[in-house]
Specification:
The structure holds two protein chains of two kinds. Chain A is mainly alpha-helical. In chain A, 53% of the residues lie in helices and 9% in strands. In chain A, helix 10 (163-200) runs antiparallel to helix 11. The N and C termini of chain A lie far apart (119 Å). Chain B is mainly α. Chain B has nine helices and no strands. In chain B, helix 2 packs antiparallel against helix 3 and helix 8 (164-170) packs across helix 9 (175-192). Chain B starts with 18 loop residues before the first helix and ends in a 6-residue tail after the last helix. The relative contact order of chain B is 0.10. Classes of the chains: A mainly alpha, B mainly alpha. At the A-B interface, helix 1 and helix 2 of A face helix 2, helix 3, helix 6, helix 7 and helix 9 of B.
């Protein structure tokens, strides 16, 4: 092998003997292991840049946080793009009941404000119907600060002939305000939950939207005539020759079942008067009342305290 | 060096490539270059490790794999200002040193056993083996009995195709020191081998 031959003549013989006996080679499985290892690392060399980037991304917590933020912002932008009206809708809490009542009256007079357009339709309808049911004049509500564009549509206050009637209207209006405040509070909560659900679970946004837009407070409308008569919080009333189930408006109607409770329970309440009638309810929940007027516990005079 | 003006990735590995060129090709994903490089140094490195481990096959194979794995894993750390074979055997020597530190007492015991076996096997057995075979076995036994540095010098000198300068570099010595070790080793082997083997 080596060209540097030792000087002693016997050294050639020793070198020859050694080289004749030096024939060992590594085992085949050793060769295979090493070649496999070499190929494995050769392949990793080719993909090294990409692997390095992936390793950096996977090992960096800050990058993980950034990725989550980017995904979250993307979802929000996507929701805004898909539902621009809902995302820009003002919070119900910033929308006072007086404004709502004013808006309803404006709507009755043909004035539609931007807030009305952005307010859930169910709430608008329920207020409008409630006002219609009671045949209330919107101008009779207590004075409240109004936007200029809304105030221009306010009609003049009519002359009050009957003081008792005025008192009852005022009292009814206070009741309505209180009920709507509660309704809006619940609606705001439902709306807020809806928005949160949209941000977190975009895939379920559609179903959540349908749930939130349902008027959970106006359960009375879902009741049939028999159930409404039995209810202590709803009142079956004759409106335009049609039996309509609506929420109880005053202390006389509240906690009084038109069908089950004794008239004395109504008479015990101050300023309450019982109007008798006779109703016959069927298995399908429909009822027919004498004179088409269900029994009722009505407010006669004074305030609901 | 071959075709230095050719991009390294487009070169094909062949027998005319130097060790350093083959390693460079392998660093760019050429597996054939590694096979050629491995085949060039496989046997000589294995025998060197085998002798340094007193012909203990298991230990030699273990270190042999470790050396090549180290070469593969750290291939990009090779400095082109040195020879690949020098780097290879320096790694091998370091692995041997680590191994001997781990099992120093065990190896000393094995060395004693093998030495005694070699002395015992010095008795010729003409009935079963030829004279040449007997001389070869005697020489291999005597090589193992050489002092470590002389044995290393003898094995490197005969199992590799390196110059004295390269071998001195591998063993981290001077040219003269390596020649001196080699001379002492040959002298002892001449003294130990029977006259019919010379």
């Amino acid at each position: 092998m080596n060209k540097h031959v030792p000087s002693d003549p016997h050294d050639d013989k020793i070198s020859s003997l050694y080289q004749q006996g030096s024939v060992e080679t590594p085992a085949a499985h050793i060769n295979e292991n090493i070649r496999l290892h070499a190929r494995k690392h050769s392949a990793s060399v080719i993909s090294f840049p990409l692997r390095r980037v992936l390793n950096v991304i996977s090992s960096s917590r800050s990058l993980q946080v950034a990725a989550v933020l980017v995904i979250g912002v993307s979802i929000i932008l996507q929701i805004q793009f898909d539902h621009p009206a809902e995302m820009s809708r003002p919070e119900p809490a910033e929308y006072s009941v007086n404004d709502l009542l004013a808006d309803k009256s404006d709507a009755e007079h043909g004035v539609v404000t931007e807030d009305q357009l952005l307010t859930p339709s169910v709430s608008s309808d329920s207020v409008q119907e409630s006002l219609a049911e009671r045949n209330l004049n919107p101008v009779a509500r207590p004075a409240s600060p109004r936007p200029a564009m809304k105030a221009k549509a306010a009609p003049e206050k009519p002359a009050a002939d009957d003081e008792m009637q005025q008192t009852e209207k005022s009292e009814t209006m206070m009741r309505e305000k209180r009920r709507l405040t509660k309704q809006f509070s619940e609606e705001k909560q439902a709306h807020s939950s809806h928005r949160q659900a949209e941000l977190i679970l975009h895939s379920t946004a559609t179903s959540m939207q349908s749930v939130s837009e349902q008027d959970a407070d106006d359960l009375c409308r879902t009741l049939d005539n028999a159930a409404c008569l039995n209810s202590a919080t709803c009142v079956l009333n004759n409106i335009s020759n049609d039996l309509v189930c609506r929420p109880a408006l005053n202390h006389c109607e509240q906690d009084f079942s038109q069908l089950q409770d004794h008239p004395d329970l109504c008479q015990q309440k101050p300023h309450c008067e019982y109007t008798a009638s006779d109703c016959n309810c069927h298995s399908d929940g429909s009822c027919s009342c004498l004179g088409d007027t269900p029994p009722a516990c009505k407010l006669t005079a004074g305030e609901d305290k | 060096m071959k075709a230095k003006d050719t991009p390294i990735k487009s070169q094909q590995a062949d027998d005319q490539n130097s060790d350093e060129e083959l390693l460079a090709l392998y660093c760019h994903g050429n597996n054939r270059a590694f096979d050629m490089l491995y085949n060039r140094h496989r046997d000589s490195l294995y025998r060197f490790l085998l002798r340094q481990n007193n012909n203990m096959t298991a230990q030699a194979e273990e270190i042999f794999q470790e050396v090549w794995f180290s070469i593969i894993n750290h291939k990009k750390q090779f400095r082109n200002d040195s020879k690949f074979s020098t780097w290879l055997y320096q790694i091998a020597r370091n692995k041997l040193t680590d191994s001997s530190r781990k099992s120093l007492s065990r190896k000393e015991k094995l060395h004693d056993d093998i030495a005694s076996q070699s002395v015992e096997s010095a008795t010729p057995e003409p009935d079963h083996k030829t004279q040449l075979q007997i001389c070869i076995e005697l020489l291999q036994g005597f090589v193992l009995q050489l002092p470590q540095e002389q044995k290393e010098a003898f094995v490197l000198k005969h199992d590799t195709d390196k110059s004295i300068d390269d071998l001195a570099l591998i063993t981290n010595t001077t040219h003269e020191t390596f020649k001196s070790r080699l001379r002492y080793a040959m002298q002892k082997l001449r003294d130990w081998l029977p006259g019919e083997c010379l």
